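Saturday, quiet lab. Running sequence design on the structure tokens for the scaffold JK sent over.
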């Protein structure tokens, strides 16, 4: 599944899947299709399916979306195993992971503002790095330079020294992919653990064997594989599913109109209809057909068996 990487731990015993939404808004049809596909991959392989609420960014999280998102999944016929896990209740695990990185002398403090990073990131030596990559400004600060910044007041973010490592892996759907890992943030200046750290810790801790998620996260995967290596965690498999697009060809968003389950209900569409349309959009149903969730699982199983996973 993951080629060219040194596995540090045993692979998870069960290839469970998961959906890990951030409750910062309603799920749109693209998010729902990703959740459905992740569920179909897991269930078609006889695996468990877990839901994790990625609610670390308290400033952006709205509690009502937690219940709303779970209700949308249930309405589509997507079920999950065990309790829903909330990242906001797991900070001790992230503290431990940070300590493991610190013990390897991989962590440093960074005082850069967004504007400074943007400016430095346009320098020629940044070619080949992912968009938004950190140029390394604070990596080699002297003790004196650090104390000058520390007394200036703003608490620093914590970054890891990744030395522009190149990570290659094989995605189940996108094929061979390779990316350079920049010095990513692992804890923000306001103390919030970063997405990449949380996701890696939780996917391992929850024994997720295969991560099925939107292709917008393909670029983040080399960073997560790098963190897994440094933390001594087994690598899960990855399958990045295509993003749903609006009529204008851009990634689906609120501005495209009736994009949530509630919007579709207001137009008279039942959840069965929406599920069927989503399935039809990936070749698992014919237009107008209304297959039950169990039937979709069967079809997914055949698709996987015939080597055309989605
Ligand atoms: N919470 C992330 C999001 O909603 C997804 C994380 C993941 O699937 O790895 O975009």
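Result came back. Writing it out in full:
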């Amino acid at each position: 599944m993951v080629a060219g990487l040194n596995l540090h731990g045993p692979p998870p015993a069960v290839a469970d899947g998961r959906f890990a939404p951030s409750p910062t808004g309603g799920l749109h049809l693209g998010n729902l299709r990703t959740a459905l596909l992740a569920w179909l991959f897991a269930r078609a392989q006889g695996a468990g399916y877990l839901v994790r609420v990625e609610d670390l960014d308290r400033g952006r999280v709205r509690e009502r979306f937690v219940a709303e998102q779970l209700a949308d999944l249930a309405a589509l016929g997507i079920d999950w195993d065990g309790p829903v896990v909330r990242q906001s209740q797991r900070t001790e695990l992230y503290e431990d992971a940070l300590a493991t990185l610190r013990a390897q002398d991989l962590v440093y403090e960074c005082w850069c503002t967004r504007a400074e990073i943007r400016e430095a990131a346009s320098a020629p030596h940044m070619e080949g790095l992912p968009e938004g990559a950190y140029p390394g400004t604070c990596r080699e600060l002297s003790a004196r330079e650090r104390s000058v910044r520390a007394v200036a007041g703003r608490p620093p973010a914590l970054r890891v020294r990744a030395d522009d490592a190149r990570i290659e892996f094989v995605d189940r759907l996108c094929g061979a992919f390779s990316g350079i890992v920049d010095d990513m943030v692992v804890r923000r200046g306001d103390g919030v653990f970063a997405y990449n750290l949380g996701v890696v810790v939780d996917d391992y801790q929850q024994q997720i064997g295969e991560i099925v998620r939107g292709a917008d996260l393909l670029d983040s995967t080399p960073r997560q594989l790098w963190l897994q290596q440094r933390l001594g965690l087994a690598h899960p498999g990855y399958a990045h599913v295509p993003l749903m697009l609006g009529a204008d060809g851009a990634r689906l968003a609120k501005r495209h109109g009736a994009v949530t389950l509630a919007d579709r209900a207001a137009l008279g569409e039942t959840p069965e209809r929406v599920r069927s349309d989503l399935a039809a959009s990936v070749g698992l149903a014919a237009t107008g057909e209304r297959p039950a969730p169990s039937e979709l699982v069967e079809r997914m199983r055949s698709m996987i068996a015939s080597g055309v996973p989605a």
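Notes for JK: Residues 1-12 have pLDDT under 50 and may be disordered. The beta strands are 17-19, 49-53, 85-86, 107-110, 157-160, 166-171, 175-180, 185-187, 210-214, 237-241. Ask whether to fix the surface positions before the next round.
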